[in-house]
């Protein structure tokens, strides 16, 4: 059953643009959202080089696909979110994962454009704002020099490839208040001048956070290479009963350097990262309907189906058996 997805694209009243220049994924593309998605998605052309998107949607079907952006800096504040995205490297490989989490603000710098995939669970609510600044306007804001500091040693770094950098911004009450006010104004069409002013305020806050955060002392190249090996080893064999001791031995690091280096490089602890990848893979497998909940739990590294179910409910808010039953029922109705 198709639900109602309201899509709007327009320029602000004071904008010099004649039509919206979409710097990110366009909601007008059929692949952007499944037909059973419900909610509102607005793309607003603020001025040349600046686009604002606000969205509040509930995904009613598979929401998996590839995205591509124009060269830009993107600032995203998510109020409701789940799932994850992947940044693609120059050779088309999955270079880094970006978990989508509520209450977070992200900055993505892609001077040559970004390429990747997204995977959002069935029934997820996605609500937030997305501000896109093209590279010319970013330079005119006096922030061009910041791009040289955005490395994996930057304290706000979350994920990166050769061409794209993603960081997680602190979310003080002032930034959250501005983001929510901007969302409410855009959804209610309360005034185009207010929208532009609030968008510029958020950009200014993001620039300040990036500038004030001093790049951390970079780990030795050998450590960074081995930390990536540790990440790749876990994600390529999720069913293995990984321990810190075994993982450290496999990549040739001490346990202390592995734990501290992994947190600094990926913004999370080793076990937290492993659990997130296991649950995301389990969620994907459940949506195929090809294996039982117990079989999936074992395949991603959980010896107890009940323990797996508790973690799954905590992460996604639904029993894994219900996800599988819904998929099987839909398949049977075809």
Explain what the structure shows.
The protein has 334 residues and is an alpha+beta fold. It folds into three domains: 5-212, Jelly Rolls, CATH 2.60.120.10; 219-267; 277-334, Arc Repressor Mutant, subunit A (Orthogonal Bundle), CATH 1.10.10.60. Helix content is 39%, strand content 25%. It is built from ten helices and twelve strands. The protein has an eight-stranded mixed sheet. Strands 4-9-6-7 form a four-stranded antiparallel sheet, with no helix packed on it. A hairpin with a 5-residue loop joins β6 and β7 (94-99). α2 runs antiparallel to α3 and α4 crosses α6. The longest helix is centred in the middle third of the chain and has 21 residues, at 192-212. Residues 228-326 form the HTH araC/xylS-type domain. Keywords: DNA-binding, Transcription, Transcription regulation. This is Transcriptional regulator, AraC family. One of its GO terms (molecular function) is DNA-binding transcription factor activity.
